[in-house]
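WARN retry 2 of 3 for item q-0093 after timeout on previous attempt; input resubmitted unchanged.
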Amino acid sequence: MNPTTAAVRAGLQRGLIELRNTFTNGQDLWNYFFPTAVLLVTTFFMRGSTVPGTTFSLGARTLPSALGMGLAFGGLMVLASQLVVEREDGTLLRVKATPNGMLGYLIGKIVLLSTVALLSMFLQLLPAVFFLDGLELSRPGAWLTLLAVALLGLVATLPIGAVLGSLIENPRNLGLVMLPTMGLIALSGIFYPINGYPGWLQAIAQVFPIYWLGLGMRSALLPGDLAAVELGGSWRHVETVGVLGAWAVLGLVLAPVVLRRMARRESGSRMAARRERAIQRVG
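OK item q-0093 returned
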């Protein structure tokens, strides 16, 4: 069997095993269901407020935006944090010792995190249909658009998450990525339209995938006339595909290079040195 084909098959198997394990782990299940509960409670209490200039529920407008935010956060931060933790505990060193091990490892993580992200999205969406007015799931093309935006968003963010995780050696430094990510979420119109922001803040938000994931989700789930409150007065599907596609290409080009470089540098002595530093910090 071709080594690459064997690595892909091993990666798929690894992803399915990790998926089964994560759904039997109480801590993991809590991490999935608690954010879902928080989002549903938040949108429930926002349902009586309206989007400025309209009579449309702010809760219904927020839900698809938050779905996009969840996909972006999962792609960028969850993969990055898992890479950092598993470098620290020696998992990546063991993976490196097998032929094409890093390729199989990355495929396994993509299978795991993509499946979890899509399941989380539907867990958040389906209960909200019963208490939020205005979501148009029965509109022709709504589900297709939703799935297409979700998949493109995962392709745009997961490779970048792998790059970030490869560049960070110490789990304590994850905050250096987390804080800017939270700032981008605040700028990206997840909970409130960004039309009232200064132009330079609007420009920053539109560089990154979080804004476009939220916009794409809104275009799938909200009435067409609500596009009037968006920048440019439309859903800007072409721009959404263009920006998310550009991030996908950038990530797919960079991720293999950075991961190979990280794998070459990984060794038992480096892992031991990191553990020694961690022990000294605790002491």
